[in-house]
# Entry
Amino acid sequence: MISTLTLDIERQGLHDFSVELNAVVSGAELHEGLCTLFIQHTSASLLIQESYDPSARRDLELWLNRLVPENDPLYSHTLEGPDDMPAHIKAALTASSVSIPVMEGKLALGTWQGVYLWEHRHRPGKRRVIVHLT
Amino acid sequence: MISTLTLDIERQGLHDFSVELNAVVSGAELHEGLCTLFIQHTSASLLIQESYDPSARRDLELWLNRLVPENDPLYSHTLEGPDDMPAHIKAALTASSVSIPVMEGKLALGTWQGVYLWEHRHRPGKRRVIVHLT
Amino acid sequence: MISTLTLDIERQGLHDFSVELNAVVSGAELHEGLCTLFIQHTSASLLIQESYDPSARRDLELWLNRLVPENDPLYSHTLEGPDDMPAHIKAALTASSVSIPVMEGKLALGTWQGVYLWEHRHRPGKRRVIVHLT
# Structure
């Protein structure tokens, strides 16, 4: 019912983890239900986004980096590096949890939808996403 | 337990679909539980928002259109029209799924809350929202 | 299975309600499951955020206040005070519902994660958060 995915993330940006996620969903042998994802971090988030054209994902990253730049004089929380406070803000503007129905044993994603971990730091390391199926 | 709402959306903006949604919830004859909505698109989103005064919804749309304008020179993903990349960005900043408790057979919304599909494109057509009840 | 937390909120900003929330989760005596929170208001939201360093939360509030200022000439919805329309916009950009897995009887939060009510108005009063456990 609950699994933890540990993902090796090396850089900022959108990371497709559908291979790992679909393996958990298939393994549960659930015909119909609900899959809820929760990310155990405050500087990365979960995103359902266009999976077809990589240029859309690139523009999305560039746009958010422009909206929430590093080295903004507003920040007082700077001890953990210039990418830390922007990462917390980006995480607050995006999702920590997302729920996707399961139909006919699969995630009921739309034709162009993919599930991504959106990493907001430059050198993150391991990231944990908890998968709850019911 | 799972239903699909197919909504005919004709223009950008907030679209109230509580009539369709409440019909699904009533039909389920669930006294207490959880209703999870998931939108199968990456250029529209789900929003719980002020239902009383339409001026609040208008300002919200105007504000987001100003934050994420069309024809921004940052965009490289432009083949599908000037409203496509802004639509993906707006969808990333808002919700793809939302969960609302069911109490006494009804969605436990606050006094001023309504459930909206927030369409980010100008000529969208059919939009699918999956409703999971448990 | 469903409880309502009524929180006394006195000012704008992030409010930690983990004491109240953990009491509900412990009381449910659920070993493994899912906890879904839903806020019954359109000018406050739910946020999973860094719990360790208060400077991160302060910067987050300052940043959002700069992005969505009061007295923006764009607003036509102004009858309920200068903090009302910004509050609706901030609520639309953040979460109305969030789902957190329960593992070994506790919310499966990451090491640095806390659960907050993000109040967007200056003198809010009572706020209701519904907690669904399954």
The domain at 2-133 of chain C is CATH 2.60.120.460 (Jelly Rolls).
